[in-house]
Design brief:
The protein is mainly α and 332 residues long. Helices cover 53% and strands 7% of the residues. A three-stranded parallel β-sheet has the order 1-2-3. Strands 4-5 form a two-stranded parallel ribbon. Helix 8 links the parallel strand 4 and strand 5. Helix 7 packs across helix 8. It binds tryptophanyl-5'AMP (TYM). The site of tryptophanyl-5'AMP has 25 residues, from strand 1, helix 1 and helix 7.
Length: 332
């Protein structure tokens, strides 16, 4: 236990988890617990950087937590928790805010992207969001952060903040590394395949949610935007739509791109698209059903997040005490 490397990651409950977050992150998490000590959290505090409806946020947090378990992440083997249940995250985030530069935060792609989409609510939390994410990671002596490609920049900033802090105060933080899957790290929108699939854009069928019904998933895949050719061939630049579908099919079936190209040689998109839809439906079906079953058991869900928060708090508070001491804060 002591010598295992530490893994930590999180998902925002700002909407239902997408096929993108499943293939880019969640799907890989369950298999890591035998080799690593893993912590996974629902980051409710990150979610409020954009406006949320409280009742909906409450529901989505539990749904996300249930999905962790439904994806095969055993709550006895792993630490599953809700971010706001461990106040050390907010406490360390403040400290790290004082070690994060305005210029660094200004360069974050997610900030630029989200602030252009929410021009009426570019709040300070949205700007300093990466310092909270750095706190999440650094509190636990994390070695590896399994995320999709879009989060790489935040993990790199976390490293810079940690190195800066250690440069002043000695060896306080472990320097983490991003852990990004080879296939599935960037699943694209089915309607606009040059754009990342994202829960903020679910309306036009371009985004598939883990909890979507099979018929809706099939419809989204049959309608997926492709090009005017017919050949099922991976070519990210010229055929982004079909390349995205090949990537999704590869994640679902474990087949290589070449095997997929051979399987569908001469068959055309009309045959390929429903096959991808079917593969996704079958992959997500047990997760959706198990999530629904778990959500009905409120006492069990409560036990999972309470136990998780207790386990996480122990390490988090230890790190926070060390940081406060280094800074010169007086212990009470
Ligand atoms: P979030 O909630 O946007 O996404 C959760 C995870 O899913 C991955 N992901 C994708 N992967 C592939 N293709 C996609 N289209 C796609 N969309 C999302 C994301 O890369 C992520 O791994 N800031 C984080 C949450 C967070 C966090 C952390 C992560 C907060 N604290 C500490 C790691 C460690 C976020 O907004 O993820």
């Amino acid at each position: 236990m002591e010598n295992k490397k530490i893994i930590l990651s999180g998902i925002q409950p700002s909407g239902s988890a997408t096929l993108g977050s499943y293939l880019g992150a969640l799907k890989n998490w369950a298999s890591l617990s035998s080799e690593f000590e893993c912590l996974y959290m629902v980051v409710d505090m990150h979610a409020i950087t954009t406006r949320q409806v409280p009742a909906e946020l409450r529901k989505l947090q539990l749904e996300q937590l249930a999905q962790f378990v439904a994806c095969g992440i055993d709550p006895d083997e792993n630490t599953l928790f809700i971010q706001s249940h461990v106040p050390a995250h907010a406490q360390l985030a403040w400290v790290l805010n004082c070690f994060t530069m305005f210029g660094e935060l200004s360069r974050m792609t997610q900030f630029k992207d989200k602030s252009s989409k929410n021009a009426e609510n570019i709040n300070a939390g949205l700007f300093t969001y990466p310092a909270l994410q750095a706190a999440d990671i650094l509190l636990y002596g994390t070695d590896l952060v399994p995320v999709g490609a879009d989060q790489k920049q935040h993990v790199e900033l976390t490293r810079d903040i940690a190195v800066r802090f250690n440069g002043v105060f000695g060896d306080v933080f472990k320097i983490p590394e991003p852990y990004i899957p080879k296939v599935g790290a960037k699943i694209m929108d089915l309607q606009t395949p040059t754009k990342k699939m994202s829960k903020s854009e679910v309306a036009d069928g371009g985004c598939v949610l883990i909890m979507d019904k099979p018929e809706d998933i099939m419809r989204s895949f049959k309608r997926a935007k492709t090009d005017s050719e017919t050949e099922v061939r991976f070519d990210q630049e010229n055929k982004p739509g079909i390349s995205n579908l090949i990537q999704i099919y590869s994640c679902c079936t474990g087949k290589s791109f070449e095997e997929i190209e051979n399987e569908f040689a001469g068959k055309g998109y009309g045959e390929f698209k429903p096959c991808v839809g079917e593969a996704v439906v079958e992959l997500l079906r047990p997760i959706r059903e198990e999530t629904e079953r778990l959500l009905a058991d409120k006492a069990y869900m409560q036990e999972v997040y309470r136990k998780g928060a207790e386990k996480a708090s122990y390490t988090a508070n230890k790190t926070l005490r060390k940081v406060y001491k280094k800074l010169g804060f007086i212990e009470k």
